[in-house]
């Protein structure tokens, strides 16, 4: 029976809640290629990956001779322990202070580069600015940051993808756990959000994604 | 079906004294016996097993492989042996072992000399130092990974005249240990 399910695309093909076993879609990424060039030398850099845990990413980063750090920010931001009553009756919000006290806790200027992926598009609204400010603090001067943003064509039901590094210019997208797209940033919004960074470069990617390479 | 008993299947010790048979050499202690060993669960034979109802606070060390499905708070030191943390395992400790496989939850730093493996049900909050890492989809990991390849062992010089040995020592370069500083979490 399992054989027929596989053949006809039954449940065996369906991604689970965490995206385990979902197919991976390769995609060339100019932004990531530029990011890789920025971190090639010297060895021993500290790279922070804020996406879902991916052995491909860890292998790629450690394969370059760097030290990999991983923190799944979206998973942490959506934890039930952070939900508190909102200002209006019947509403809820996110405990920003608690999030910042428990997550992204590193010394200032710890990292040579940060992979933010498309986390900003899925973060709860109260966390977006504090998270970007914290990332700025923990990134070294001249450190690189790679972020992706959906374009307005993506639609509110755009699925969440995990990003796996395949090669220095190729990523693999794998449908991951269900996170709701919270917003679509315009270029001006992105510039404002990262206004402390010294340089910002936009690359138009495929599938309604903009790639942004920033330098602190 | 009715096989005659082979010489090496004789019991090693018998209660009644028998005259020595000079033609057959005495069986040595390491002589393999032609006895079929039934296949049983590894966790019950070769591996020490800590069940899910067990709670340990303090230092846990040993010289055999360990399957841990209970709770440990403190320190786990198995150095040259393997550790499997089962799906019910809850560890709040720094772990030092040869190979570490995690199915359960760990809060602490992991040193796996050979390999660290995070299964899909695992949750790890802590740093990893190892040679090889395997992470299944679905595993949750928060921390750093430091891949440390073992340096090739320097060739040991065999006994030589003193003058030559001294000369060799002066040109010998000891391998430098990985000294990358770690980022301290607040």
The CATH class designation of chain A is: Alpha Beta
Weakly predicted, low-confidence segments of chain A = 1-16
What general form of chain A does the structure show? globular
Provide the helix percentage of chain B: under 10%
Strand order of the largest sheet of chain B: 6-7-9-11-10-8
Strand content of chain A: 25-35%
The greatest inter-chain interface is formed by: A-B, 27 and 22 residues
Task: Summarize the topology.
The complex is a heterodimer of chains A (216) and B (186).
Chain A: H1 2-7, E1 24-28, H2 30-39, E2 46-49, H3 55-63, E3 67-70, H4 73-77, E4 83-85, E5 92-94, H5 96-102, E6 111-117, H6 119-122, H7 125-138, E7 139-150, E8 161-167, E9 170-175, H8 187-193, E10 199-204, E11 209-215
Parallel strand pairs in A: 2-3, 2-6, 6-7
Antiparallel strand pairs in A: 1-9, 4-5, 7-11, 8-9, 10-11
Chain B: H1 42-45, E1 48-50, E2 55-61, E3 66-68, E4 71-77, E5 83-85, E6 90-102, E7 105-107, E8 110-118, E9 123-125, E10 128-135, E11 140-147, H2 162-171
Give structural notes.
The complex is a heterodimer of chains A (216) and B (186). With 216 residues, chain A is an alpha/beta fold. Chain A has one domain: Rossmann fold. Helices cover 29% and strands 30% of the residues of chain A. In chain A, strand 10 (199-204) and strand 11 form a beta hairpin. Chain A is globular. The N and C termini of chain A lie far apart (54 Å). Chain B is built from two helices and eleven strands; from the N terminus they run H-E-E-E-E-E-E-E-E-E-E-E-H. Chain B starts with 41 loop residues before the first helix and ends in a 15-residue tail after the last helix. Helix content of chain B is 8%, strand content 36%. Chain B is mainly beta and 186 residues long. The longest helix of chain B is centred in the last third of the chain and has 10 residues, at 162-171. Chain B has helices spanning 42-45, 162-171, and strands spanning 48-50, 55-61, 66-68, 71-77, 83-85, 90-102, 105-107, 110-118, 123-125, 128-135, 140-147. Chains A and B meet through helix 3 and strand 3 of A and strand 10 and strand 11 of B. Strand 3 of chain A pairs antiparallel with strand 11 of chain B, so a sheet runs across the interface.
């Amino acid at each position: 029976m399992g054989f027929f399910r596989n053949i006809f695309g039954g449940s065996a093909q369906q991604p689970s809640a965490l995206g385990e076993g979902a197919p991976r879609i390769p995609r060339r990424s100019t932004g990531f290629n530029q990011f890789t060039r920025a971190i090639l030398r010297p060895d021993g850099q500290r790279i922070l990956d804020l996406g879902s845990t991916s052995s491909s990413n860890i292998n790629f980063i450690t394969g370059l001779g760097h030290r990999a750090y991983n923190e799944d920010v979206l998973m942490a931001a959506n934890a039930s322990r952070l939900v508190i009553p909102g200002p209006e009756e019947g509403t809820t919000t996110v405990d920003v202070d608690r999030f910042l006290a428990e997550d992204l806790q590193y010394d200032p200027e710890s990292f040579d580069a940060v992979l933010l992926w498309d986390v900003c598009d899925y973060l709860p609204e109260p966390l977006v600015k504090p998270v970007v400010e914290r990332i700025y603090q923990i990134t070294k001067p001249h450190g690189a940051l790679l972020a992706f943003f959906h374009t307005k064509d993506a639609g509110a039901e755009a699925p969440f993808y995990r990003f796996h590094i395949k090669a220095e210019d190729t990523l693999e997208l794998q449908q991951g756990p269900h996170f709701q797209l919270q917003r679509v940033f315009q270029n001006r919004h992105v510039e404002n959000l990262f206004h402390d960074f010294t340089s910002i470069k936009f690359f138009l990617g495929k599938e309604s994604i903009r790639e942004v390479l920033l330098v602190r | 079906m009715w096989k005659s008993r082979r010489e090496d299947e004789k019991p090693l010790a018998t209660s009644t004294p028998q005259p020595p048979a000079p033609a057959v050499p005495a069986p040595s202690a390491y002589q393999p016996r032609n006895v079929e060993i039934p296949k049983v669960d590894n966790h019950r034979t070769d591996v020490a097993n800590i069940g899910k109802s067990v709670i340990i606070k303090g230092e846990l060390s040993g010289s055999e492989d360990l399957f841990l499905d209970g709770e440990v708070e403190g320190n786990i030191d198995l150095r040259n042996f393997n550790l499997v943390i089962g799906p019910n395992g809850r560890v709040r400790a720094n772990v030092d072992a040869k190979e570490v496989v995690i199915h359960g939850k760990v809060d602490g730093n992991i040193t796996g000399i050979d390999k660290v493996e995070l299964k899909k049900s695992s949750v790890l909050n802590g740093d990893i130092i190892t040679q090889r890492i395997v992470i299944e989809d679905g595993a949750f990991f928060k921390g750093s990974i430091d891949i440390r390849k073992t340096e090739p062992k320097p060739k040991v010089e065999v006994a030589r005249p003193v003058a030559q040995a001294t000369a060799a020592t002066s040109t010998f370069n000891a391998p430098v240990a990985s000294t990358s500083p770690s980022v301290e979490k607040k």
